[in-house]
């Protein structure tokens, strides 16, 4: 019987790819889907920037919750984001309160807190 000892510095492409896939499984939402709720591209970008800053301040792994992706559309390259459930909520919380979805979400959180 042979025993293989792995240490933390072990670098294997297959393991790295597996870890990347496992992280991506939790990224269930596209930031661009928020356009259908009245968000502008600039509003989404600003809310994502603030949400990432919150994660960094709270020592929450950004890579576990946000991933920038690039899409092609009519010979144009567009940047989008894949978001986890948690990061999607953070983005909504950090968008303009003038958007109905944002106002509704914030009010729902306050109602939950008062119960």
Description:
With 115 residues, the chain is an alpha+beta fold. Helix content is 47%, strand content 16%. The chain contains four helices and three strands, in the order αβαββαα. A three-stranded antiparallel beta sheet has the order 1-3-2. A hairpin with a 2-residue loop joins strand 2 (66-73) and strand 3. Helix 2 (41-57) crosses helix 3 (85-93). The longest helix is centred in the middle third of the chain and has 17 residues, at 41-57. The mean pLDDT is 88.
In short, what is this structure?
This protein is α+β, with helices and mostly antiparallel strands and 115 residues long.
Low-confidence stretches: none
Biggest sheet architecture: 3 strands, antiparallel
- Helix percentage: 40-55%
Residues in β-strands, percent: 15-25%
Q: What attributes does this structure have?
A:
115 residues, alpha+beta, three-stranded antiparallel sheet, 4 helices, globular
List the helices and strands and how they pair.
Elements: H1 13-25, E1 29-30, H2 41-57, E2 66-73, E3 76-83, H3 85-93, H4 100-114
Antiparallel strand pairs: 1-3, 2-3
């Amino acid at each position: 019987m042979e025993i293989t000892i792995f240490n933390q510095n072990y670098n294997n492409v297959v393991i790295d790819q597996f870890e990347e896939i496992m992280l991506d499984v939790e990224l269930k939402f596209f930031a661009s889907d928020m356009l259908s709720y009245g968000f502008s591209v600039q509003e989404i970008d600003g809310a994502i920037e603030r949400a990432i800053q919150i994660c960094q301040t709270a020592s929450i792994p950004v890579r576990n919750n946000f991933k920038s992706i690039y899409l092609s559309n009519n010979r144009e390259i567009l940047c989008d984001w894949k978001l986890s459930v948690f990061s999607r909520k953070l983005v909504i919380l950090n968008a303009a309160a003038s958007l109905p979805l944002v106002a509704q979400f914030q009010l729902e959180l306050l109602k939950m807190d008062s119960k």
